[in-house]
Predict the 3D structure of the following.
Amino acid sequence: MTCPSYHPPDEMLMAYGTGSLDEASSLLIATHLTLCRRCRIEVERIEAMGGGLLDSLAPESLSEGALARVMTRLDGPPARSRPPQTAAVAGMPAPLWPYIAGGVDALPWRRVGPGIQQVFVASGPIARARMLRVAPGVVIPQHGHAAGEMTMVLRGGFADAGQTFEIGDIEVAGPETIHRPASDPEEGCLCLAVTDGPLRLTGLLGRLLNPFLDL
Amino acid sequence: MPDIVATEPPKPGGDRWNDLLSLVADTSDKEAFAQLFRHFAPRVKAYMLRLGVDGPGAEELAQETMISVWRKAGLFDPRRSGAATWIFTVARNLRLDRLRKERRPCLDPDDPMLIGESLPAADDLLDSGRRELKIRQAVAALPPEQAEVIGLSFYEDTPHGEIAQRLRIPLGTVKSRLRLAMKRIRAHLGEEE
């Protein structure tokens, strides 16, 4: 399996590695990392910077007897394996499992347009993450975004403005982007999308669909 | 209990911490843990304070981080990272768990869906310490305004906005400096774009 060609912007990887990224965006990044060795190496590098920084910080004394108190709390030997995960969802990267328990087909999908279904999987004050399921050969009406959106392929693929997005690839759309993605004609497309602002539809069909298509 | 510090002067550098953390993992060595605690707990506390956590909170998070270090020591893999880096990730994740009350979706290195090698490249495997030293050197060689945004990135709770405010520069400038810095670091490490 080849690595993805389209990656998250560097500053998103940085925010993930330093610990300042919100939950919905972290879900997208962690899922991408499962599928992308290049970005895993980037994040390991950012974490190594964090290690260097931690090592070089001027120490702040702990309270009297802190070590002794911690020592009394070391219950049992260190664990040899990871604590049990949420139940696995076959064919999906592990970071998604807690958000799609029971499997992709069991999610409460809602139809938002012809051949297009979506379900929100994580919502926070900063961004929302949703899964999008698009039937084969569907063209999503031309639309723009009030803020930013990142869409990553989990299964199948889509094409937009001459570029083809396959598993793990991320399309980054900003306020200036007006696009018209089309799902793969054979397999359709299952995506994870993170939006940090409402979407704005352009074009006649877009305007007609706007009330129904909460993309 | 013999005092290891008195009989064996501390080696500088990361290898000593890797060895101690491996001792904790392999033999539940409490003296090795105590040495890690004396070095790292005050630094984790300093890290939490820099992130804006108050004194008692930073103290508690530092202690909780070290308890997690004990409990998770068996998951430390010196081929993957040095001890300081691993302890940084434990502290970072613990803070997000406790203060944000959010889940933090994390990569699982044993995920059957993982694409590509899980471990670093074979020629780097022997020595995570040397690899991390090269990264630190690459950061040290950055132009000051790029090193500054990298450093500040570790001390904020939401991405980049706090840096922009603090340095009185637009958000876009923070992002472009970060991108330039990462590009330069890749070039320093001899990687093509």
